């Protein structure tokens, strides 16, 4: 079935999904051949753009279902507090063993971390956008039955990733020490959970010039650690992270002195998660890549300009619960 054929099928599906929809034109969204979704942009009779997406595998289907729960939780009232667009649900239609979902189309292109480095005004807009998410009222998340994590649960999940990674015997010793030091640092993990997007990155942000036009991929929406939504920026240049954080704080985000440090912990643990993913899917290539990333990280954290993971204040107290958590897992892994 050629390009036009699949677009035609999606357009036909959209009219089933959205009663009264008249499709006046279609174009493919993203690259047609690759990716987890087959998708198209449609114009309805009023001229507004809609997007239709059909998942190509179970992982995509699970992600789409989670996203749907979240975008339905983001009511009109909540959306007015956001300085960008979120897709709105319009309808769905069964196709084969799955379903195609129709939403409003959010315009914009995905930025790269390099774009953020070249456009400080855009980095500022990103900080503002993240701050707006974190200031949303927490009740709508709990009312929708979405997860609500305490600081201890956030720490426990970080410790679990550290431990499972260390158990592979592939984590360099200096990183193991650095991460366990961060886990034992009580003040680092004292924060007020906020509404978080949960999987922010260049793939979920849409921009146009210096504006953030939309945010996609809300499937991990929950109450949790605000630092998680800022960790992805650390993959870019240091000054970009500083610009994003300054804008974030200037727009009411983060009354939490340890935010940048915890974002660093989350960012570094992404290498551990990549390692665990490689082990799980038995891919030597992914495992080797993760190990190489960890060794680069060791070099970076030993550089004179490196930032320690410990909290910013001198009085770091030992936390009994974490000590127990770490010693019990150390016994388990011997």
Would you mind describing this structure in some detail?
With 334 residues, this protein is α+β, with helices and mostly antiparallel strands. It is 47% helix and 14% strand. The protein is built from twelve helices and nine strands. The strands form three sheets. Strands 1-2-3-5-4 form a five-stranded antiparallel sheet, sandwiched between helices. The chain has a two-stranded antiparallel ribbon with strand order 6-9. A two-stranded antiparallel ribbon has the order 7-8. It is globular, with a radius of gyration of 22 Å. The termini are far apart.
Topology:
Elements: H1 3-17, E1 25-28, E2 37-43, E3 49-55, H2 58-73, H3 76-79, E4 89-95, E5 98-104, H4 113-118, H5 120-134, H6 139-143, H7 151-167, H8 173-184, E6 194-196, E7 205-208, E8 211-215, E9 222-224, H9 238-250, H10 259-280, H11 284-302, H12 320-333
Antiparallel strand pairs: 1-2, 2-3, 3-5, 4-5, 6-9, 7-8
Helix pairs in contact: 5-9, 7-8, 7-10, 7-12, 10-11
Give a short synopsis of this structure.
The protein is built from twelve helices and nine strands.
Q: Tags for this entry?
A:
334 residues, alpha+beta, 5-stranded antiparallel sheet, two-stranded antiparallel sheet, 47% helix
Structural class: alpha+beta
Across the major sheet, the strand order is 1-2-3-5-4
User: What is the oligomer described by this structure?
Assistant: single chain
Q: What's the pLDDT, averaged over the residues?
A: 89
In whole angstroms, how far apart are the ends? 56 Å
Instruction: Please tally the helical runs, counting DSSP H or I stretches of 4 or more residues.
Output: 12
Q: Please count the beta strands (DSSP E, at least 2 residues each).
A: 9
Largest sheet: 5 strands, antiparallel
* Rg (C-alpha, Å): 22 Å
Name the beta content range.
Answer: 5-15%
Helix content estimate: 40-55%
Overall geometry: globular
